[in-house]
């Protein structure tokens, strides 16, 4: 038998007939649209050769990465089973709910629960409920442990355990429970002398247990385990299924009860309910995107009661409110007022993208009363998205509760009779509400960043219940906080799995023309790259030659990532999921494994590299005569830094220096292209970004520098823009409905109104009619005494626009493809495939357009492209936010290390609302920080027209107006639980 | 945390080497051949491959309906393909001029022309009617098997019994896919003359990842055909014995003898 199985794994087994025993099962279900009854018959073969289930056998003979998982083996005989099981330990059979809710216990129990049996029925039920847990279970079954034996039992196919579905009136759930109990019984009967434990939290299932095995709840069993293994602390990991607060059971439910699964699917099928994924920006606002016919519409969910315990990412069923409850499209969506947070930090560069823009859906419906925003309430949860959250515990404050967190903590925290304490956990992820946590180690967890898993949210509990998973480290520590911020923004930061690494070319892969036939050999061209110093992932290189006819040949060469990342492979899927590399101050999280990112794809100097080249013939006055796209092999002659390139541009002509000549020629052309773009209305925007100088050992920030923008930066940017636009046109011509493009919507007038009014108060005018007028008015808006005001205006106008978004060209009308900022009718991303997945897609589209490689199947599916673009937009945004959060974190470290600093700042906004605390917002150009300055003055005079406030200071009366220069003090303020925040205090006015 | 739309869902095979219906990759579905199920035709066969059931009847050789259709040196083979309204999950009438059925009819005709000695029946017409009674994947293969069986039952002279079986999925290579597997896997139908090793038909509508994959799939499909042949041959022998002995009034004895042999 054993030999048989091995040969099966290698695919050499003879073809033969299936076993003679089989069952048929018939389901009837109504169709979605017309309610026709469908009869589905499936067949299942029952086998007697499945023995005692399957385990994973380590078959790797060498250390190759792709074989770490081994192959599944059937345990065919009792002696074999006895040899595999860890001696004198019980065999544990788990049911669906244990898998779904107690995964952390199963994972961390390790040696204490070595013999684990997972029935297939449980695993499949798991898949219908929570894909994350399903994946974790599969990983658990597939990993090979020295001290654990995990067995997968295919019970529906095993003659000893399969259950006939003949009995009427038994719900599918009960039937599945019966199947799982049979597995326990099978092991109980066939393993004399070994105790078999059936873990279930379902009381009814425990009562039905037979005598050949022992049924226990997880909490009971964990207690037993902890008595025998004193070192183990599993009880905190046990998920809370019922309300933690014992006295709340009598209370009336706070939320409406959710509908049952069958009622939900019936409602969805009949069209009364809609199904969609709930997305929220914080825990007060949420949207559900539903399909209405062929359209996707975002439905707004307002308030806790309508939201009915759904969290971000849940698949929910939503009922639309009647038309009278819809809100007008002009009304801004309810957002939590960011103004309330007193802390200072790094502000967003652009306006928040609306949901409609992020995922290319509409959020209004035209009805008789005009465009209205539909609202609805959630009536049930189809699939929960309870992911692990990181954050910290807040506790009752001794004195007056200041912050909102402390208020909640004071209200909810309590001691339980069994010695545990219920405390309130606040996830750093603002999309998730606070979580109630029952723990035995509250005092130890206080002040730590911990990971908590959400378990359930009963209708009578204000907040969801969860359990402690692990501690990351003390709050405030740099590495801990970095991990927290990655979690918070949901950025994949685990190392690449083995399946992905297995897709890599071998270490000794040789890049030669022979290894990839069909490429044009461009190794004779003097190609060079220009990047920031220390850049490891060089994805673009340039060359420029003078042709015999006097024209220039200009080439942009982009790393040929798709040569290594084949569509549909594990690596491709991983990259599609990550969608972008994330750059933090102290580290870089790559989209692709390091071998590709920093070596094989990176266009380093003096080595051969595969590239995707765009070659133009350009006349000396900057007109493009023809363009050509080619897969090529190149040999870069130099990897220049921006500084080096700039010195080439500045130095006098020297015809013998090939590099300098090429850079100079490119610079001349770039100036012409740039002028042409600006004439067409492209905007020049600014950003207050700064960069940290890090200590080489501790990686702590020692200084802050502004980014130096040289002409060389503009040169590279210009050619990349040209390449992107050229490629966008090319792929669009070939695939008018399937191209991945990038659009930048024209800004909303109402977003610009405050800025226009502020500019007027200092005598400047801003015209936003179109991008050309905006660019011109920004150029004209100069204050002679202070050139920085102009930059400030550019920074602020950027904030009034939404960020650019990826989309699939088939989803929007051609008029909506426009890129406002670049004043280009179509635009895409082609030039950074190492760090952006959109570019990888565009590379594939372009390769298909020029008949180099066929278009992968999935890229021709519009709905897949939609999901892909939505994911790319979400990840791109998350990467930006995480990058900014990382800067913020380092700013805190910088100031807490050096103590308080005094610095010049500009007033951005003055709060002139009546009744509000007197305050104004400033930006500190030196550090790129902005924040709110609070004044402790009683007597305040407000002048909304002039954007000015005046108050009586300690020594003299002060008056601050928008765009004034002031002197401020920056310091770090300590808060509860080692949390810190940056504070800005006003010192004096500068004239 | 990976996205659901990026996931490969075939984990059952990864965990225990079983397909969704409990077969191993190298197992064909249970098959049943019944011959002589319809009396008024020359030959008939009802073939079940798992839940797919196909009825084939052979009429002929007869005179051609129109003189112009006649071929002076061989018989004309016509194949008609139809499906019962209840053969799929939802009940609906499928017109016989459905493009896919016309194509399938043509494929069956080509496969059988390779085996029937048509030149022995000049100026005549042989008609094969195929009806799908129940559909659960492998429709074309079941149709070819049924037609081939009915041709044998009709007593037409053939080179070899055409057998058909599908393979696909590529990694792992699975044989005889059912409807659910057909939906999300590469599927290649293959028909051959098993005793000669000649492929008479192979059809694949998906893109195979590599040449080597084609070799593997084709090899598996041919092995599948041979396995089908083993079952079909036994059924034909049994049926022949039954007919022969029933004429001589010794049905039971004859059956028991074949079992011994």
TrEMBL record, chain A:
Q: Which SUPFAM superfamilies match?
A: Nucleic acid-binding proteins, PIN domain-like
- What keywords sit in the KW lines? Exonuclease, Exosome, Hydrolase, Nuclease, Nucleus, RNA-binding, rRNA processing
One Gene Ontology BP term is: rRNA catabolic process
- GO-annotated cellular components: cytoplasmic exosome (RNase complex); nuclear exosome (RNase complex)
SMART domains associated with the record: RNB (SM00955)
* Keyword Hydrolase assigned: yes
Q: Which domain of life is it from?
A: Eukaryota
For molecular function, the Gene Ontology terms on record are:
3'-5'-RNA exonuclease activity; endonuclease activity; RNA binding
Give the family from UniProt.
Belongs to the RNR ribonuclease family.
Protein name stated in the entry: Ribosomal RNA-processing protein 44
The taxonomic lineage of its organism, from the top, reads: Eukaryota, Sar, Stramenopiles, Ochrophyta, Bacillariophyta
Automatic annotation (TrEMBL), chain B:
Any one GO molecular function term: RNA binding
Annotated InterPro entries: ExoRNase_PH_dom1, ExoRNase_PH_dom2_sf, PNPase/RNase_PH_dom_sf, Ribosomal_Su5_D2-typ_SF, RNase_PH
Principal place of residence: cytoplasm
Keyword Cytoplasm recorded: yes
The biological processes this protein is annotated with in GO are:
nuclear mRNA surveillance; poly(A)-dependent snoRNA 3'-end processing; rRNA catabolic process; U4 snRNA 3'-end processing
Boundaries of every Exoribonuclease phosphorolytic domain copy = 27-156
**Keyword terms of this UniProt record:** Cytoplasm, Exosome
Q: List localization entries.
A: Cytoplasm; Nucleus, Nucleolus
Q: Which GO terms describe its cellular component?
A: cytoplasmic exosome (RNase complex); nuclear exosome (RNase complex); nucleolus
Q: Does the keyword Cytoplasm apply?
A: yes
Q: Which family does it belong to?
A: Belongs to the RNase PH family.
- Protein name in the entry: Exosome complex component RRP41
Q: Origin organism of this chain?
A: Fistulifera solaris
């Amino acid at each position: 038998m054993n030999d048989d199985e091995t040969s099966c794994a290698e695919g050499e087994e003879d073809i033969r007939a299936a076993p003679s025993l089989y069952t048929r099962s018939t389901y009837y279900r109504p169709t979605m649209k017309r309610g026709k009854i469908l009869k589905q018959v499936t067949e299942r073969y029952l086998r007697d050769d499945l023995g005692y289930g399957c385990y994973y056998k380590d078959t790797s003979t060498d250390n190759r990465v792709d074989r770490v998982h081994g192959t599944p083996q059937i345990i065919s005989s009792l002696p074999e089973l006895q040899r595999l099981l860890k001696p004198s330990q019980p065999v544990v059979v788990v049911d669906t709910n244990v898998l779904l809710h107690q995964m952390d216990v199963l994972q961390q129990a390790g040696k204490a629960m070595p013999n684990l049996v997972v029935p297939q029925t449980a695993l499949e039920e798991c898949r219908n409920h929570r894909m994350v847990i399903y994946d974790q279970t599969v990983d658990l079954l597939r990993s090979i442990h020295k001290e654990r034996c995990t067995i997968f039992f295919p019970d529906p196919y095993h003659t000893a355990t399969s259950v006939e579905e003949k009995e009427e009136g038994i719900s599918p759930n009960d039937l599945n429970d019966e199947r799982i109990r049979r597995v326990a019984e099978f092991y109980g009967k066939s393993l004399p002398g070994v105790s078999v434990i059936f873990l279930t939290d379902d009381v009814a299932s425990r009562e039905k247990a037979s005598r050949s095995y022992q049924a226990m709840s997880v909490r009971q069993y964990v207690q037993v385990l902890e008595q025998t293994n004193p070192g183990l602390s599993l009880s905190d990991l046990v998920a809370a299924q019922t309300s933690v607060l014992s006295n709340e059971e009598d209370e009336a439910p706070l939320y409406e009860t959710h509908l049952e699964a069958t009622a939900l699917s019936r409602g969805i099928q009949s069209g009364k309910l809609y199904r969609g994924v709930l997305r929220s920006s914080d825990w007060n606002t949420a949207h559900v995107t539903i399909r209405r016919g062929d359209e996707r519409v975002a439905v707004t969910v307002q308030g806790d009661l309508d939201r009915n315990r759904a969290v971000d990412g849940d698949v929910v069923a939503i009922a639309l409110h009647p038309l009278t409850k819809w809100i007008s499209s002009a009304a801004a969506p309810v957002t939590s007022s960011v103004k309330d947070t007193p802390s200072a930090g790094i502000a967003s560069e652009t306006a928040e993208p609306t949901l409609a823009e992020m995922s290319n859906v509409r959020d209004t419906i035209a009805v008789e009363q005009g465009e209205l925003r539909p609202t609805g309430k959630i009536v049930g949860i189809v699939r929960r998205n309870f992911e692990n959250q990181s954050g910290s515990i807040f506790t009752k404050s001794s004195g007056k509760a200041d912050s909102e967190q402390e208020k909640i903590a004071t209200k909810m925290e309590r001691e339980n009779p069994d010695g545990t304490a219920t405390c309130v956990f606040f996830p750093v992820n603002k999309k998730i509400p606070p979580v109630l946590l029952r723990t035995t180690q509250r005092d130890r967890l206080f002040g730590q960043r911990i990971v908590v898993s959400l378990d359930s949210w009963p209708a009578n509990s204000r907040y969801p219940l969860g359990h402690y998973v692990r501690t990351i480290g003390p709050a405030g520590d740099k590495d801990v906080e970095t991990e927290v911020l990655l979690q918070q923004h949901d950025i994949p930061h685990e190392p690449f799995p083995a399946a992905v690494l297995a897709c890599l070319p071998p270490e000794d892969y040789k890049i030669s023309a022979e290894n990839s036939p069909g490429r044009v050999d461009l190794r004779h061209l003097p190609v060079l790259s220009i990047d920031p110093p220390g850049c490891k992932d060089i994805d673009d290189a340039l060359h420029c030659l003078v042709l015999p006819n006097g024209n220039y040949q200009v080439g942009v060469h982009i790393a040929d990532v798709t040569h290594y990342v084949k569509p549909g492979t594990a690596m491709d899927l991983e990259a599609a999921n990550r969608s972008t590399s994330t750059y933090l101050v102290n580290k870089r999280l790559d989209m692709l494994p390091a071998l590709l990112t920093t070596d094989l794809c990176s266009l380093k100097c003096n080595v051969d590299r595969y590239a995707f080249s765009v070659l133009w013939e350009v006349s000396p006055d900057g007109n493009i005569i023809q363009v050509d796209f080619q897969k090529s092999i190149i040999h870069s002659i130099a990897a220049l830094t921006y500084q080096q390139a700039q010195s080439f541009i500045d130095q006098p002509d020297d015809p013998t220096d090939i590099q300098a000549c090429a850079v100079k020629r490119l610079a001349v052309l770039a100036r012409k292209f740039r002028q042409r773009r600006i004439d067409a209305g492209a905007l020049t925007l600014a950003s207050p970004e700064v960069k940290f100088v890090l200590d080489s050992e501790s990686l702590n920030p020692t200084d802050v520098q502004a980014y130096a923008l040289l002409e060389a930066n503009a040169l590279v940017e210009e050619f990349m823009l040209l390449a992107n636009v050229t490629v966008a046109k090319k792929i669009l011509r070939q695939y008018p409905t399937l191209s991945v493009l990038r659009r930048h919507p024209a800004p909303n007038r109402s977003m610009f109104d405050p800025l226009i009014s502020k500019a007027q108060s200092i005598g400047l005018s801003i015209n936003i009619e179109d991008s050309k007028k905006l660019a011109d008015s920004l150029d004209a808006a100069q204050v002679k005494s202070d050139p920085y005001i102009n930059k400030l205006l550019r920074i602020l106008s950027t904030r009034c626009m939404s960020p650019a978004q990826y989309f699939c060209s088939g989803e929007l009308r051609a008029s909506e493809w426009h890129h406002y900022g670049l004043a280009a009718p179509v635009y895409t991303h082609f030039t950074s495939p190492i760090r952006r997945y959109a570019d990888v897609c565009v590379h594939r589209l372009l390769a298909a357009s020029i008949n180099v490689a066929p278009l992968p199947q999935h890229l021709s599916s519009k709905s897949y492209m939609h999901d892909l673009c939505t994911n790319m937009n979400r990840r791109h945004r998350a990467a930006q936010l995480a990058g900014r959060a990382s800067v913020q974190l380092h700013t805190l470290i910088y100031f807490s290390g050096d103590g308080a600093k005094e610095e010049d700042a500009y007033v951005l906004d003055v709060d002139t609302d009546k009744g509000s605390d007197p305050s104004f917002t400033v930006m500190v150009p030196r550090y790129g920080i902005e924040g709110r300055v609070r004044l402790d003055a009683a007597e305040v005079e407000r002048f909304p027209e002039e954007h000015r406030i005046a108050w009586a200071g300690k020594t003299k009366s002060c008056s601050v107006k928008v765009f004034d220069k002031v002197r401020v003090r920056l310091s770090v303020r300590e808060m509860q639980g080692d949390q810190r925040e940056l504070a800005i205090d006003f010192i004096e006015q500068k004239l | 945390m990976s996205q659901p739309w990026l996931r490969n869902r075939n984990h059952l095979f990864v965990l225990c080497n079983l397909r969704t219906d409990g077969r191993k990759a190298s197992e064909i579905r249970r098959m049943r051949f019944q011959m002589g199920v319809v009396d008024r035709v020359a030959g008939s066969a009802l073939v079940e491959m798992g839940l797919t059931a196909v009825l084939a009847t052979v009429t002929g050789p007869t005179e051609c309906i129109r003189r112009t259709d006649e071929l002076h040196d061989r018989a004309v083979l016509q194949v008609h393909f139809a499906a019962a309204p209840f053969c799929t999950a939802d009940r609906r009438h499928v017109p016989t001029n459905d493009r896919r059925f016309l194509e399938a009819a043509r494929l069956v005709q080509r496969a059988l022309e390779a085996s029937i000695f048509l030149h022995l029946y000049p100026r005549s017409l042989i008609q094969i009617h195929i009806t799908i009674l129940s559909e659960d994947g492998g429709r074309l293969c079941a149709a070819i098997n049924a037609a081939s069986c009915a041709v044998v039952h009709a007593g037409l002279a053939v080179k070899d019994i055409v057998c058909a079986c599908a393979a696909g999925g590529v990694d792992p290579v699975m044989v005889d896919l059912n409807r659910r597997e057909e939906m999300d896997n590469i599927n290649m139908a293959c028909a051959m003359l098993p005793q000669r090793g000649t492929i008479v038909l192979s059809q694949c509508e998906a893109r195979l990842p590599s040449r080597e994959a084609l070799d593997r799939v084709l090899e598996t499909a041919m092995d599948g055909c041979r396995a089908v042949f083993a079952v079909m041959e036994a059924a034909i022998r049994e049926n022949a014995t039954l007919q022969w002995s029933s004429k001589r009034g010794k049905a039971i004895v004859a059956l028991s003898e074949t079992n011994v042999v």
